Amino acid sequence: MLIDFFLKLKSHRLPVSIKEYLTLLEAMERNVIGPDINEFYYLSRTSLVKDEANFDKFDRAFAEFWDGVQAVPGIEAQIPLEWLLKQVELTLTEEEKKQIAAMGGWEKLMETLKQRLEEQKARHQGGSKWIGTGGTSPFGAYGYNPEGIRIGQDKSRNRSAVKVWDQREYRNLDDSVELGTRNIKVALRRLRKFARQGALEEFDLDNTISSTARKAYLDIHMRPERRNAIKVLMLMDIGGTMDDHIKLAEELFSASKTEFKHLEFYYFHNCMYDFVWKDNRRRHSERTRTWDLLHKYGHDYKVIFVGDATMSPYEILQPGGSVEYFNEEAGAVWVKRFTDVYSKCIWLNPEPEEVWPYRQSIQIVKELMNNRMYPTTIGGLEQAMKALAK
Amino acid sequence: MRFTGSADYVSTDDLTLAVNAAITLQRPLLVKGEPGTGKTMLAVQVAKSLGVPLLEWHIKSTTKAQQGLYEYDAVSRLRDSQLGDAKVHDINNYIIKGMLWQAFTQDKPCVLLIDEVDKADIEFPNDLLRELDRMEFYVYETRELVKAKQRPIVFITSNNEKELPDAFLRRCFFHYIRFPDKETMEKIVQVHYPNLKKSLLKEAMEVFFEVREVPGMKKKPSTSELLDWLKLLLAEDIGPDALRSKDRKTIIPPLHGALLKNEQDVHLFERLVFMTRAKGA
Question: Model pTM?
């Protein structure tokens, strides 16, 4: 019973297990729900899906199974959500609505959509042909077309609700799309090493017992609490090409701030040179000599560089190559000093890994870091933390 | 036993069904959702409407799974032994029952709330697998097996600060409380403030949903903030006129401190208002 449904969920890569499937059957047997497809939808979701990020996948699988409708090829993955970010709200007058003629049947619409998907390469907004937001094309979100297909819209606007699972309200919770602070925190958690340090606050039972037995009077022992003893020095590239990655850098920064007790951070621009700074607004008046950094923080610190390493190769290899001032020693020398002092040293690069081979400067930095450069995806972060924790 | 919502709590169809599935199959229900959407209140209301006792176990970052079962107070036993207290011969005097133990030994079924399970250490849920699945555990000190007389109805809430292990999730029903839409929200407000004037409610709701739409907000105001804010509006006797404005974007709503809990958000909001005002001028 319902085995095909279960297998359908599996084929949509939902992490469902046999135990959960049996729970669903048990619930059906005990008449938790009546013969109602809506109730079955709720029950199967509550028993099979354990993460709201998977609700959207579940809705798709459910619709596909129960309507016998084939999934539209290419719809789930190929449209980046950024295109559909709500920016324009378009309200059409009744007249304009009438002007938009229906484009023919469902099949024709799908065909045209596929065609457009192939033609279209960039994000689009407004207008009346391309897929995007706020337009009058039949494809996209936040627009109006009586026969439109909605892609990635988080609430129904012109359309009244059809079926719960067809509304796909959980679209924006799918975590394959974004990398939020929560995910970063979970990844950073790999970098934990507990040690007992600091004030004696916790009762030490074992020691008390053995000491009491030895001394024949009650001898209470205390010990420090277990704390994460990892020390992290974070150096972030700021300005210039990093402007594209501000949001990601912010998230990474706020996640690490709460995760590590000993976190020191400094900014640099493009590459390491003689100076770093803590406050970007006063970067010219209050800066720290990089030598001081190397002397101040012991070699047990773990160093994380965050930067896109995208610059002219001269900025790394030539003395005087910096775009800001005349540096007497090349950036490469400084990076090398860091890798020499700190054995645990990695570089996180927000640029997508695919473009690395095409940027000379990234290759140079990667080599300087002994290949320890990782992309800022969840997988990349986990690898990076593993490398640091080794 | 069936839960059908209560006079003080608006429960959507899917939530009601999840609760009833958990009650019928006697499995824990894991509830997630934005802060302030009534996760903790759910357990309180279910207990109230079913007329059964409620046991609450609030989790902190230092909470250990063992503390929910029992704790052995070795120190007072040690001290009593030095003082020659007769109590010392029975170890049961030094075993302090935790919330799970108390829930297991109730004669009637009860509701057990494990609140904010994500606050504890990552291993915490794993340590409770058998206890929640079989509803039994072993007390090593007294060599006794504690088994639930009646399986309690277990509610677990999480704020998503940590991911929960798969093995744990598989044993639970799961419900994600969505942020209510306007209609549900109106029902919720009606339940809490039945005497609220329609006009004030309408204006307040519009301001509220507008504030939620402000991009880049760190903590969006949620249901509980709206309720607090309405309470303040009522207490200060602010009428719907004060909220209504031709150009609503240019005024800061009164008592916005109840809606925005983060100073960065307040700054952001004020800046946005200031900018639209400057643009209008």
Answer: 0.59
